[in-house]
């Protein structure tokens, strides 16, 4: 979504937000109903804004706003009944960061062009958006937002107008670099697009009354549908009432599925590129137990993100699993707050220890990831105060040391507690008795794809797409010769 100029200072509080959910519906039922239900199901992918665009009475109509899906689409506060009565549409939720919380940047984006209306919902990050924008500006184009999705839409719209739908999307995709999983509406026609690397997920399902394209398969389940397949990396597929029609598959040099979807971002009940997220997390926990065993009395998860990995650790080690921490269901999300101080205070509101579980116990504490380290430092502290005798922290992903340019709001190196520190230094910093991260090999094995098919940029600092000033993944292979 938002894109800052490459090489600009991605300071705290102005980080772009790229994680989002996209959906699309076409069928014989009420498009609005299926789009709303699927967006609510995918709310975890973005809580800042929500929007739906449908084709109706010869034009594309949009309703979007700031907030959760249930807030933006609440009949008490806004009238969106004008979306009723459509058979095709797309939807979007956007991930929140501080700053740039403007409704102009909310999806879906719509333009009216000589072929009619074109609307897009986009998840990912166009890495060359600024260059493309500059060159379009030189030719007289104007832009209304800071979003790279607008750049993507303008590129597609220009080429579709000139070369027709198939060749137009193809031409635009040749220029667009980076991560994009998108749903596209051209009048009443619905398309699903996934970049040639396949960074972000995108699936298609059959519903009782039509088809659903969605970022994650759990949305298809909730609508009583059946997961048909993933959109392939580089594929553009049209969803028609009579079925799926692949327009083309743009050849990719390499596939780079984001490992962080499996580690943290996606819902455990989703299946991404044929791999169930829950099962992957259990496997991560099992590997963690094998790589970093410890004598302890119980395994407790950091709710909710560490649950499946903690369960896997317990199953593999035989150490009993228990609830040792309670999460305030209504607390605000700490990760996105602009200052360290705010984040630290918010973490306090979020979690509390169950004293009877942890008192005098040797505890294995499992979470999915450590980014800045605020959460872990605080949890270790409250467990100590609740009387835990030993605290052994185990993390279901390797050390995050480098920025993500393809969709996670981790941008500056100095944010990462693991950057430039040894495991022992991190252990001291968070105050644990021991600390173990799953290895990169362990992660790759747990996901089950070859390492070359995964983007491990935030773990290695080597990226599958050229990023000015950063190392390219192919480069290291060449260096080995
Ligand atoms: P830290 O306090 O170390 O910065 O954050 C780590 C915690 O944030 C972990 O519990 C992890 O589940 C969660 N987390 C990791 N990545 C993200 C993200 O991209 N967004 C949000 N909201 N939370 C994240
Ligand atoms: Mg968490």
From TrEMBL:
Superkingdom as given in the UniProt entry: Archaea
Reaction equation(s) it catalyzes: 5-phospho-beta-D-ribosylamine + L-glutamate + diphosphate = 5-phospho-alpha-D-ribose 1-diphosphate + L-glutamine + H2O
Keywords: 4Fe-4S, Glutamine amidotransferase, Glycosyltransferase, Iron, Iron-sulfur, Magnesium, Metal-binding, Purine biosynthesis, Transferase
InterPro entries assigned to the protein according to its UniProt record, in alphabetical order: GATase_2_dom, Ntn_hydrolases_N, PRTase-like, PRTase_dom, PurF, PurF_N
Pathway: Purine metabolism; IMP biosynthesis via de novo pathway; N(1)-(5-phospho-D-ribosyl)glycinamide from 5-phospho-alpha-D-ribose 1-diphosphate: step 1/2
Active site, renumbered: 20
Biological processes per GO annotation: 'de novo' IMP biosynthetic process; purine nucleobase biosynthetic process
Residues annotated as binding Mg(2+): 305, 367-368
EC number of this enzyme: 2.4.2.14
Binding note for cofactor: Binds 1 [4Fe-4S] cluster per subunit.
Entry function: Catalyzes the formation of phosphoribosylamine from phosphoribosylpyrophosphate (PRPP) and glutamine.
Family recorded in the similarity comment: In the C-terminal section; belongs to the purine/pyrimidine phosphoribosyltransferase family.
Entry protein name: Amidophosphoribosyltransferase
Organism: Thermogymnomonas acidicola
Taxonomic lineage: Archaea, Methanobacteriati, Thermoplasmatota, Thermoplasmata, Thermoplasmatales
């Amino acid at each position: 979504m938002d894109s800052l100029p490459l090489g600009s200072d991605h300071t705290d509080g102005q980080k772009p937000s790229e994680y989002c959910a996209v959906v699309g519906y076409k069928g014989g039922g009420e498009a609005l109903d299926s789009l709303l239900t699927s967006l609510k199901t995918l709310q975890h992918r973005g809580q800042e804004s929500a929007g739906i665009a449908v084709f109706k009475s010869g034009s594309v109509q949009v309703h979007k706003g700031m907030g959760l899906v249930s807030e933006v689409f609440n009949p008490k506060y806004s009238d969106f009944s004008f979306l009723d009565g459509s058979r095709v549409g797309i939807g979007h939720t956007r991930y929140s960061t501080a700053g740039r919380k403007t409704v102009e940047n909310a999806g879906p984006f719509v333009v009216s062009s000589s072929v009619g209306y074109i609307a897009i919902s986009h998840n990912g990050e166009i890495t060359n958006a600024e260059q493309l924008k500059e060159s379009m500006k030189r030719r007289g184009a104007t832009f209304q937002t800071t979003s790279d999705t607008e750049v993507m839409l303008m590129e597609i719209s220009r080429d579709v107008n000139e070369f027709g739908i198939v060749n137009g999307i193809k031409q635009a995709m040749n220029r667009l670099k980076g991560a994009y999983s998108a749903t596209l509406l051209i009048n009443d026609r619905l398309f699903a697009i996934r970049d040639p690397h396949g960074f972000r997920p995108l699936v298609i399902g059959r519903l009782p009354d039509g088809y659903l394209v969605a970022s994650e398969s759990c949305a298809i389940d909730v609508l009583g549908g059946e997961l048909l397949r993933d959109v392939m990396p580089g594929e553009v597929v049209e969803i028609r009432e009579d079925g799926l029609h692949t327009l083309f598959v743009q050849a990719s040099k390499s596939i780079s599925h984001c490992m962080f979807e499996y580690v943290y971002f996606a819902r455990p009940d989703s299946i991404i590129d044929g791999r169930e997220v829950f099962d992957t997390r259990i496997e991560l926990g099992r590997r963690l137990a094998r790589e970093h065993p410890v004598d302890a009395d119980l395994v407790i998860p950091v709710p909710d993100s560490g649950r499946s990995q903690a369960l896997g650790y317990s199953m593999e080690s035989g150490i009993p699993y228990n609830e040792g921490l309670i999460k305030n269901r209504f607390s605000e999300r700490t990760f996105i707050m602009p200052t360290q101080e705010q984040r630290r205070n918010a973490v306090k509101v979020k979690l509390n220890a169950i004293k009877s579980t942890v008192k005098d116990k040797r505890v294995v504490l499992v979470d999915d990831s450590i980014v800045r380290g605020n959460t872990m430092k605080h949890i270790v502290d409250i467990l100590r105060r609740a009387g835990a005798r030993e605290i052994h922290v185990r993390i279901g992903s390797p050390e995050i040391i480098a920025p993500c340019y393809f969709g996670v709001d981790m941008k500056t190196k100095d944010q990462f507690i693991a950057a430039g520190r040894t495991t022992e230094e991190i252990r001291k910093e968070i105050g644990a008795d021991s600390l173990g991260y799953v290895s990169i090999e362990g992660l790759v094995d747990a996901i089950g794809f070859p390492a070359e098919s995964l983007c491990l940029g935030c773990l290695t600092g080597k990226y599958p797409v050229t990023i000015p000033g950063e190392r390219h993944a192919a480069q290291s292979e060449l260096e080995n010769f």
